[in-house]
Amino acid sequence: MPFRHAARRAVATAAVAALTVGLAACGSGDDSKSSAAQATPKVNPELKGQVTIGAVLPLTGASATIGKDQQRGIELAVDKINSGGGVLGKKLVVKVEDSEGQAASAVNAARKLVSVDKTPVVIGEYSSGNTIPIGQYLQQRKVVHINAGSSSPDIAKIGDFSFSVIGLDNIAGKFTAEKLVQAGYHKVAFLAPNNAYGTGLLKATRAALQQSGGQIVQSLLYTEGQSDYRQELQRLKSANADIVIYSAYGKEAATINKEAYQLGMDPRKFFGIYLTMCTTDSDPRAVDGQQGMDVNYIGPNGSAYKSAYEAKYGEGFRTSFSGYTYDAVTMAAKAINQAGSVDPAKIRDALATVGKRYEGVTGAISFDAHNQRSEQPYLIATMKDGKVSEEGEVRGPEA
Amino acid sequence: MLDFLLGVAVVAAIYGILAISLNLQAGATGLLNFGLVGFFGIGAYATGISTMHGAPWPLGMAIGLVLAAAAGAAVGRLGRTLAAEYWAIATLALAELLRLVALNTDSLTRGPQGISAVPGFFSGLGPQSRDLAWLGLAALVLALCWWVSQRVTGAQFGRVLRLVREQPDLAASLGHDVVGAKVRVMAISAPMAALAGSLYTHYISFIGPGQLEPFATFLVWTMVVVGGLGNAFGVIAGAAIVQLLFDVTRFIDDVFDIPSENAGGLRILVVGAALLGFLYFRSGGLVPERLRRIDARS
Predict the structure, then answer these.
(1) Whole-Å CA distances, A293 to A185, A205, A375, A378, B114
(2) Which residues does chain A have within 8 Å of residue B241's beta carbon, measured at their own beta carbons?
(3) B 148-207 residues with CB below 8 A of A?
(4) Å from B221 to nearest chain A CA?
(5) Is residue A373 pLDDT above 60, yes or no?
(6) Are residues A153 and A225 in the same domain?
(7) CATH number where A95 lies
(8) Which domain holds residue A158?
(9) Which residue among A97, A109, A115 places its CB closest to the CB of B3?
(10) What ipTM describes this predicted complex?
């Protein structure tokens, strides 16, 4: 059988089909609920003209869930700004470009924003591997870069046009470790996704635990997107730790929590890093009594943000990342207003001033000498009857 | 605009190198390599790891080329025991294996964090001239690979490869070393993919396991199929068209008013539909392979 006529045709079709199906699967997010409630505030009719800034987010590909949630934060910020005074008396528009979760596409997306849309500010991305190349490109082009999703220490080295509104890995891990050891937990098991976020968190938590006298007796990094996590959970169960620290994205966390419950693991012995994200899709019974830490969404600014999110999208926070893009947009808007122009160098200087002390929905933001967020307030919370409620301290093992 | 187009062109040229590499394997020899991204990864990580330890860039690039040639030859030898379809599956598995190693050996590859801040070329130049220099370099390497590919397929060896593709048993009965031909073509083409990986890493200044997903292999396959399997000029055109399609569709939501939550997915849908349409109307590719006279001199 000649290769040319049969096999080759089949291979050609299969290859293209694999490509398109794979991408389409990534692209079709879970938008089932997003049309449930559209409580968008009205745009102020007095705003004339528009100011455009850009964002590069993983709207398709492996991190699409996070990218779409980052986009929600941007939409909420734009709604808020345009229902008020806008930017320089004009309407704010944020152009969002898809990075496909790939570094080359992310850089091309940033190139489009800078050279076609002429945006003075670009927000992005989620994974450090895409954020750093974007940041380096923007630095070359002298355009303001705001990182709202990555926590690699290398981001601090990009240059003077690059800002971070998200705290570094070590802050969340250190906070968790110290609180747990204080409450009397010493033997800890750890579960997180095997990606840059999960490994960074593990490293930070392990280091902080060692310093404060605790230890990780079992650490597992799971492959994202599995339909079953029993194998990982069995190993965690047999580790006999005092408590399981875990962090997982909405749908995956729901599977993990359900299966842990079925295996007879006590939800009270779980501690979720970014508890809202870990429990938002889970069955309330499977997570009842679970403890955790989260960004301060219950403070004066944060609670208004939380209700705006729920009103617009008809569900709780899907990940913990939308608040950071919200803060990135509102800070950029404030900086543009203060600079009185859309000149990137002036916005950079204004943003550094705004960032001396800014009350964001993710808590107080202040930049260090490298324009990186130096403080990140967290709070302790527990799950009660399907709701996240704030606690003063971590509940001890005996309670 | 120019800035954006230069970026698209450099990435397209790098994909063009990968397309030539795949075309030598799949187009000329009929080797269904579904693990092309593995060779790309060898080049990319050799560059990333060496520069991370302070080695000069030519060393990293050279290590990548040598390793890829050796790996290519080894994978080609697998063809001795495996029939074409099974060989295809084995290549997919090998590339996935490499990705998992990259993902899980923190000490060597920095694991899921990837290797960032890989030094780029032409850092002394201004932004615009740097982009132009990059385009020149990528085009030069592309031309070099195209020339090698033409030399290989134009010579007597190329005729053996095509015979191996169409009638492996006949080739063997005529006294040609089928496995040897596969080994040689893999050893020639795999370093091209590694070279593309090395260039990519220097250009983007980052390499991580996320770049080694099988998706990348299928993207190059699409380029080769759209351009015309078996025609080196065609596959370069295919790479340019597919890359352009991905980036031109960024303008869809500038022209039409699309609900933002669907914009990302819709763009990919348009790309998919355009590619399928392409195959429907030009199933042989943009520039199909020509039939050659058996006694033709190159």
Answers:
(1) 15, 13, 15, 7, 27
(2) none
(3) 165-167, 200, 203-206
(4) 6
(5) yes
(6) no
(7) 3.40.50.2300
(8) 50-167+301-376
(9) A115
(10) 0.86
